[in-house]
Amino acid sequence: MPKSPRAVKPAVKPAARPAARVAPRAALRAAPRVRAEAANAPLAPLGPSVDALADLPRGEHAYQEIRRAIRQRRFRSGDRLREVELAESLGLSRTPVREALYRLLADGLATEHGQRGIMVAEFDHSMVGELYVMREMLEGMAARLAAQVASEVEVSLLTELGAQYAALVKSGRDAELAEKNRQFHEALYRCAHNRFLLKMLDPLHDALGLLGDSNLADPARARANAVEHAAIVDAIARRDADAADKLTRAHIHEAHKARVKRLFAPGGKS
Asked: What is the DSSP string of 215-255?
């Protein structure tokens, strides 16, 4: 007798995985300390953009949001990082926030203090000096590489950012100077086209947010900054790598001197 055909089971599609929960926009806007503020930067910031954060795993999302808050000085040295409050502000559970805090501890951006819990790290004078020594070396190298490999479009963007910063100085819009200065330096890093250099500069850039108010609160330093930016961009545009490196190192050295002056002023702290 011929064998009856084997019954074929209908294909069953696997159940769709539930989408990862992301922080609601309303919750982020309402958060008192971890509020996401879109930067008006022509080039992408070092970390993920606000929109890109929604596509990250929840632990990475929390980590990047807290780093962003530190970088933008919405957290200050010595502030407590309370797990429950951060979870509520970000619209996440405590588990990804706890994971983010452990990563911040490993990065040196946070410290643990017994019963007080996890706090934003505080830099002493020697740590500030170490930070600026590394900035001088790495940003000088970034400028050197930018002079060698940056496209004309990228050089024009640097020129535009420098001009925007100078315009802010002239108009007295001091509150916007630190953000525009940050944009200029991030653009310079990216013009170097070196992913390993970017990875080394990234934590240094975060650490600057732990140093208190910007040096640019001093009008004289703010004006000098504009002149130094213009000289750096001019050297990059001329493809003079040696000059770009030397000028950038001198620029960071002057920033370090201004920072030390602020630290030793009455009431100054790192």
From this structure: GGGSHHHHHHHHHHHHHHHHHHHTT-HHHHHHHHHHHHHHH
